[in-house]
Amino acid sequence: MRALHQLLTSDESLVVTDTETTGLHAQVNRIIEIAAQKITPLQNDEWFSELIDPGLSIPSTITRITGISSSMVIGKPTSEVVIPQFQMFLDEGIFVAHNIRFDQSFINAELERLGLSPMTNRGLCSLRLARRLLPGLRSKSLGNLARFFRIPDEGRHRAARDVEITTMVLERLAQIAIDEHKITDIHELLSLQGKTYSKVNPFSKHVIEIRRDVLPRLPEAPGVYYMKDGKGKVLYVGKAKVLAKRVSSYFTAIEAHPPRLRQLIAKVRGIDWDVTTTELHALVFESRQIKELDPPFNRAQTKYIPRPYLRIGGADPFPGLTVQVIVREDGAKYYGPLKNRSQAKTVVEIAEKYFKLRNCSSTEFGSGKRCVRADIGRCAAPCEQEIGADEYAAIVRSVCDFLEGDIAEVCDKITVDMLRASERFTFEEAAGLRDWIELLDTRVRQYGSVATPVAGPPMVHLCLAVGNELGTFVMVDNGQISAIEAIPSLQAVKTIVLRSFEDNVTEKSALDRIQVDARRILDHWLYQNRTRVQSIGKRPDETQVQFAHRAFEVYKSIENGVSAPIISQ
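^ that's the sequence the OP posted. Answer follows.
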């Protein structure tokens, strides 16, 4: 892929993608397979490929075309798991597909079902490019282009193989563009694909003015940007690792943008921005600004959904595990946030079944009457003093360990129950138990725990610098993000930690909606950067100076190549 590699700069990537679906209509049909290849100038290309359980039967016609049957996808991850993972793989890369509207519409439909924003990545369509470069070729289908370029097309209509063919076709088209049209970079190739089918005039007056007057002033730094209309109303708020690069991308190859993005560009008359020290600060600040400003093109992101937490402990010597929306300072331990109430209830159900936690009300507990759950061995029955406070406290500690990621023993027990259910031919029960395992495994893979501990002593997260990015320091105190700073040097770590204690005194109070969302963003950011993040919790007997020194030593160790993440208490 010499031609494609030479068109990319050091921080750009192409993500060639293909989807197989149950039909042709994104709002009705579902994705059953997705594959993607990430092409970078360093030629260290990466792959993403997953079968998806669509939750419905695959039509026989689709099976004949793709070879994918309903039995092949049963037990595979759902779109709820796979599509966010694909988004992370895509990142800020250029989305590439053959007939891009088809794949884009299906992915965006899945994102909509999950309550997430549609893709805003720049798009490169090999079909559009073929129409521009090979006007005399009767058909520009992927199969016909493969035959035209003498590319073997065996195994077509499986996502991974179609990605391979699309990539080879795109390589041939890129070489034609270089040779015949003197294309020198990927931006020129993006513009070339849309010349015949332009729907928005890229040379309209306001675009020319923005390109001339605004884009040259954008800083090479992380931050938040605001796109405004002619009256100064904010239309869209976004974040960027590099403001100059991200904002400029909106005004490059406008014809290739998705329709909603073209609508935005058509209305933009001004752009403002705020520079931040780190990408994480930009993420958190963007979320806050979207909620405060309510921009019309951020509509999906302005809807706040209260995220549930799990509560255990407190003054009750025999506590149950309950679902709460508000985190209070009541001596209990809180974990979360989880995705929704249904997911939280499932975790509670798992914990109650395998740890024998009580789930009765205080009134029922005080009555001293033995319940049905105790009779069937689902409750430790502290109401009848079958277990003492110390023994029950040990159970609570085990539940906390489980919530914090120690799931192996529970998953083994669920697996045994699943096999027994299958042997009894109670397949619906077995499927439910399988879903439990998938939920726990997915949570731990994505976040490092079933549910993240909220309260507790100050916790510092140190993210190693990479490339031109500075390292990142984050302090969480009493469940709230109390400080986010860039780490300019190793020696600055001690100073930053001590300053955070002095400048960011956080009161113990319930988390509001903005703080909860900030924690959700932090959890996601920690997962994305898990290979270069070290987390350190302050010990009860540790002074601030001692804690700062330990943080310094930890950051020095990861700079020297010690693997991460390691939670240090």
